Amino acid sequence: MIEKLLFEMNTYAALSPATTEILKTIFQVKQFKKNEHILRAGEYAKYYYFICKGLLGYYKLDPDGDTIYKMFFEENSFCASTAAIIEEKPSTFNIIALEDVELIQYSAKAFRELVRTKHDLALFQIAYLEKNWVVKKEPLEIELKWESAKERYLELVKNQVLFKRLKQHHIASYLGVTPTQLSRIRKELKE
Question: What cellular-component terms does GO give this entry (predicted)?
Answer without folding.
Answer: cytosol
